[in-house]
Every structure is written in C-alpha cells, then in structure tokens.
Amino acid sequence: MNLYEQVIEKIKISQNILIVCHENPDPDAIGSGGALLYYIEETFPSKNVLLSSVDALPQDLFFLGIQKFSSALNNIDLNQFDLIIAVDCGELRRTGIVEKLNSIKGKIFTINIDHHESNKGYGDLNVVEIVSSTSEIIYRLLKSQNIQIDKKMSTCLLTGLTYDTAYFTNSGTTKEALAIASELMKTAADIRAIVRYTLKNKTRDTLRLWGEVLNQLHFNKKYQVAVAVIPKSADIDPDLFNDLKNYYLQYLQEAKFIIILREADDGRIHCSLRTTRDNVNVAQLAEKFGGGGHEKSAGFSFPGALEKTASGWKIK
Predict the structure, then answer these.
(1) Does the structure show a pLDDT above 80 at 239?
(2) Does position 81 have pLDDT exceeding 80, yes or no?
C-alpha cells in the first residue's frame, strides 16, 4: 500500500480518532483538519472523532461550521484514542503536548501529515510533502481514494490553500495548487465566505494596532533586514499577528527578509521570519535556532523578554 492507502486503512480500523492541530491554529491547520474530520464523520458515522488544539478555534473560522473541536488538548486523556493524526505540525513541539505524545509513543499509532520542509518525520506514519499547504495534501489523499469531496470539505480545503499561498501570491502558488483550487470551486467551495471571513474582516481596532506596530518598524540598511517588535503589553491576538507576518510586512520592497519578535505569555519570544526573495532561505536560519518551516516562511522561539530602552529594544 502507498502512504495514502495506509492512512485510509488506519482510519478504517480505528474507532476513536484524535486530529491534532498546532498551537494558535491557522486556516490551513483548521482547514486540513476540518476536511479530514468531515470525511471521517460522514463516511464512518459510528466512529468517535475529535479535532483539537491547545488553543481556541479562531472566530474568523467559525463559518466552517466545525462542531467537534476542543481547545482543551492539554487536558485530554490520549489513552482513550487508538489513532492520533497530527496535521500541519512541522515539529512535534508545535502540537503543544510534546511530553504527552512522547509518553504514548509505541502505544497509540500516530500519523503525521504536513507540508513543512523542516519536518523530520516524527510519526509512526509520515505523509510529508513539500506542497502549497497541508490542505493540498488532504485533497490529494481523498482524491486518490476516489472519495467524494462535498461542499463542507471543499470549503475547508480551499480555506487552507488560499491562506497558505497568501491568497495565491507567494511561492506556494503552483500550477498544481491553482488547479486544485479550481476543482474545489467546482465542488461548491464557498470562496466568497472564505474571503469575507478570513481576509476582509478587519476592525478599526485591528487597523489601529497595525499602525502601532508599523510605526515602530526598524530597518537595517546595511543588512537590508526589517525588524518589528511586538511586546506583551501590545496585547495583539494571534489572528492579527498572523496577518502582519504573512501579508503585510513581508512585502516591504527594501528588505531581504523580515524578523518579527513577539513576546508571549509563556515567557518566550517567538521569532517569525519571512521573505519573498528567491535567493534567501529563512528556514536555514530558523533551524540554527532550533526552529524550522519553509524556505520563505519560518520561525523559532526562545526564553526571554523584550525591554524598551533609550537606545531601542533589547532581549533580556
């Protein structure tokens, strides 16, 4: 059996299935996980299946109608499941439950479905393909088995695909990704809802916060690097942070790449790296600091705090 067939076979023989998204789940994590959830619910109604993360389902993704979602992944007893599927988690730590997953290793079968270049293959079964999105992989998986993709599934998948290609503007926008998007629209994927709820959904407070962050943007002319700092006091929600790093700051023409330092509540500083330059690979830089990601989009984190001084920001 090929990898896709093995995934479907594992789903068929399992009764209690947990689909795990990464922390602060984005549209690709929820889109790919949601489509897989809907497939299992509709094809195997007697099975128990749950989509979960250590963080809440973003409000701008409520339109996908996913009911079986839990933000209490930290408190879930993994031993009640006989199959765990991690989606869009480039590293095991991105699940937010590394210790729990390590404790059940060899006891509960784990499938790793992901599209990040830095994914080292932490599952018992690894479906890692360097394509536009994890949603694209789920689409290929379902189509390869002649599984009918309905409107709910197609809307989930198109949500993930559009988000991870930055609405068909970044290097993930391949002819294959565009062809899949076209096929998803043929199966009634609601592109208008996707655009309305995930792109054209900004409030005045959001725009004000963008202004505050952009006003403090630092540009290093020598190295052609732009740096944005987001202290904990800014109280920026994950959705706003994702917009800043994925759609706005990375298009700064003068910068080879951008660095966004965000101070989190967990006592760590999360560093996001973005570039649109063909000759820059930010994943290589992220990996040197224990992180990873894609050639044009990567990140890492480390313990510390941000402090503003007379000469600028410093990490302590």
Answers:
(1) no
(2) yes
